[in-house]
Amino acid sequence: MTPRYVTSSILLSSLMMACSSAKFAGNSAANNGKKPESVLPQAVSADPSLVSMPTIAPGSPVPTCADGVKITGARIAFVIDNSGSNSSTDCPTRSAAGTTNFLDQLRYACSGPTARESAVLDAYDLLAQVAAKAPGDPTAESQMAIASFPTAGNQSTGWQQQIGWRPMLAAARGEIANSLLFTRSPGGLTPYSAAVTAASTLFANVPKDDRQNVVILISDGQATDGNPADVEAKAAALKASGVKVYVIIYGGTLAENASSQVELMQRLQNSNKASSQGNWYSSNYASFDDYIKKLVGVNGQGGLAANVAGDGHLIELKSANSLSETVRSLVSTQALKCSAR
After folding, report:
1. 189-214 tens-digit pLDDT
2. How far is Cα of residue 137 from the mean position of the Cα atoms in its chain?
3. pLDDT tens string 173-186
4. Which among 86, 197, 248, 321 counts the fewest CB atoms within 10 Å?
């Protein structure tokens, strides 16, 4: 299968259409060998009493609904990978900041705003504008929470809530911006179990209302978990609770990064064995090869990252440069909705 990216042009073409469901094609097992879809499907009905997705008029950055229906905000949890590889994929003008205690990994500091910061803040600005266009309508107001993984204290399984649920209003922007400064100090591995646990925790006690609950997991690569099956089970439970899950990968496709990921996992396995800690992977797997097939897939196809996202919810980008545009497009067409109320 030829590696593909969901490019910004494809996403922008989808903004002109009312959508009933997301069909971002990715490298999940279910769509192997299928021709990628270039646009999202049109809504099946124009009945304004039915829920549909907003559209964006030419020249306007803010999504709107058709006459007779109103826009409904979303509750969005951004779960952001801050692993050490981000020092290469999303770290403007980096400088060495010492070593970590994990595989002698050199740690870097980023001198300015990362693409991850900009993407979340752009989404915040977009949704603040949406709320401002419907003054006095609390249902048009969106909410945001942010979590990161891993942590400096736990580089293999840690996660941290950076900020709890906040209204996406212009007055709260500074607080959101400060909560994203962690992205300028990347370090550690990529534990998807931590990411899914963070998302599940954030949504555990949210009130039930008309907003869609959405997780946007942003990462620059493959997962490093020792028990992929457990992570998939947690992700399935999260989706079953009514939360939509999207995974955005930047820095190349999972297929392109598969070989380097296998090499990293072999290093971790060898390090564990050398220090008498046993296998890096859990006892569910008979061998390292069986484990790798579940974690990375076959040649990067159908691995953990794709399965956490689910069919159609994996987005792969060439670089972090298009994160902002991609996140804005995703929020506009898949998180917000239009409904009569």
Report:
1. 999 999 999 999 999 999 999 999 99
2. 28
3. 999 999 999 999 99
4. 321
